[in-house]
Amino acid sequence: MPEPAPLRIGNCSGFYGDRLSAMREMLEDGPLDVLTGDYLAELTMLILGRDQLKDPTLGYARTFARQVEDCLGLALERGVRMVSNAGGLNPAALAARIAEIAAGQGLSPSVAYVDGDDVRSVGFPGALTANAYLGGLGIAAALAGGADVVVTGRVTDASLVVGPAVWWHGWSPTAYDELAGATVAGHVLECGCQATGGNFSGFATMLPIGPTDGPAPPLGFPLAEIAADGSSVITKHPGTGGLVGLDTVTAQLMYEVQSTAYLGPDVTTHLDTIGLRQEGPDRVGITGVRGSAPPERLKVCANELGGYRNDVELVLTGLHVPQKAAWVQAQLEPRLTASSVTWSLGALPQPDADTEQGASTLLRCTVQDPSPEPVGRAFSGAVVELALASYPGFTMTAPPGPGTPYGVYRAEYVDRAAVAHTVHHADGRTEVVA
After folding, report:
1. Dihedral of the CA atoms 150, 302, 43, 57 (nearest 10)?
2. What is the DSSP letter of 33?
3. For residues 132 and 420, what is the distance between their CA atoms, to the nearest angstrom?
4. E strand or H helix that includes residue 311
5. pLDDT > 90? residue 60
6. What angle do CA 101, 104, 106 make, to 5 degrees?
7. Are 92 and 67 within 8 A, CB to CB?
8. How far is it, in rounded angstroms, from Cα 288 to Cα 201?
9. DSSP class of residue 219?
10. 204 pLDDT band (50/70/90 cuts)?
11. Which helix (H) or strand (E) holds 253?
12. Are residues 158 and 183 in contact, defined by beta-carbon separation less than 8 angstroms?
């Protein structure tokens, strides 16, 4: 029997706030089997947790719902399945919102969601959020159940690609080499345009850059063609901006890795086995990836509220910058009641600078406290009242605003047995992934 065709899978988001038009671009600019979107980071989980404090019905990436509202009909028309971790802390609510959007448009997609990542009930006292990093098998089960759209909570970024590859090729949970190959493809795709030239240290050689070159086109989002043996080709839709080359792919492969053993919930990927080959313009092949059993425990992203903070930036210009900094610090500190006060002074300006900006530097004062009052009006009022009573040329980049809460992230771990990785199919069935 001939081998099944490679899975053609693209990504349209690398973070919560990425280019809103990318979903439509990826659907219109070329063929796909699956379109993924990665919206979660450690900070995002904190942001979503704060959203839920205000409204328990929230906790998901609302921009994904906006994109689906714009593009659901197009995706269904083209037979493209959509998979996203935009469910965040509340994938059930996002799935319900998508069903509502579909009904309003006269569409009837099958929408499934995956949860079980919330592990606050098994420990982590004081945590605002505590979510285990799940793998891709729940996504695979949802797609096998007929889902057109799958939304999840906290799965690893690469799992958004691993899950569809497991479904497409029918891999077993112990097909470690194949799973590792898909994990590498997912790791390359997960940060969106970073694979096509974004944040690329070799950007100066990527495209002509100059005043006569005209506006630069937006970088295209990446996609992968994943074969049955786990090998893949990283590419992008023709005619889109940026490039896919050995250097851009290698740069993304080295992003957020700590050793040659890349630990994930589905597989341990051995990065020192990866082979890369330029197969043509904007086509990089990935082969030879080996995998082994995943670790026994799952990593947990835990966030807790750390208190409140505020800051102000003071502009110091001209002569005697260190003395000006010392004077305003001596004036302000006795007025402050916050438990933590931190000062930082920028580089001293060069003597005889040609411009006022060149003759200036910034002095930042940051305050933190468990309570909001010491970093609110008590802080901003003390700063503003010095406007006519401190160093010559007293200027702020902006007046201090109200204090804001801040979070503290920590990595934790949990036994797999404590996690109920659960798929909620569109027909109401639930399925626990072993």
Report:
1. 50
2. S
3. 10
4. strand 297-317
5. yes
6. 110
7. no
8. 27
9. B
10. confident
11. helix 246-253
12. yes
Task: For residues 95 and 98, give the distance between their C-alpha atoms in angstroms, rounded to a whole number.
Answer: 5
Length of the chain, in residues? 434
Task: Tell which residue, 265, 180, 225, has the closest CA to residue 34.
Answer: 225
Compute the distance between CA of residue 326 and CA of residue 314 in angstroms, rounded to an integer: 12
Beta-bridged to residue 112, according to DSSP, are 150
Instruction: Provide CB contacts within 8 A for 187, sequence distance 6+.
Output: 157, 158, 252, 253, 255, 262
Query: Which amino acid is present at 289?
Result: V
| Those residues with Cβ within 8 angstroms of residue 373's Cβ, 6 or more apart along the chain or in another chain | none
* Token pair in block for residue 263: 């630990």
User: What gap in Å lies between CA 371 and CA 400, rounded to an integer?
Assistant: 17
Q: Which amino acid is at 409?
A: Y
Report the DSSP beta bridge partners of residue 222.
Answer: 236
The pTM of the full predicted model, rounded to 2 decimals, is: 0.92
Cα–Cα distance, 402 to 311 (Å, whole number):
10
The letter for the amino acid at 4 is P
The Cα–Cα gap between 291 and 171 comes to 13
- Classify the C-alpha dihedral 158-163-169-170 as positive or negative: positive
Three-state DSSP at 48 gives helix
Are 369 and 305 contacting, i.e. CB atoms less than 8 angstroms apart? no
Q: Classify residue 295 by its DSSP letter.
A: P
In one-letter notation, the amino acid at residue 210 is: G
Beta-bridge partner residues of 347: none
d(CA 269, CA 251): 17
Please report the sign of the dihedral spanned by the C-alpha atoms of residue 161, residue 167, residue 168, residue 174: positive
Helix (H) or strand (E) holding 325: helix 321-332
Per-residue pLDDT reduced to its tens digit, 121-177: 998 988 999 999 999 999 999 999 999 999 999 999 999 999 999 999 999 999 999
Distance CA 61, CA 41 (A): 11
Average pLDDT taken over every residue of the chain: 95
Rg (CA), the chain: 25
Q: How far apart are CA 285 and CA 232, in angstroms?
A: 6
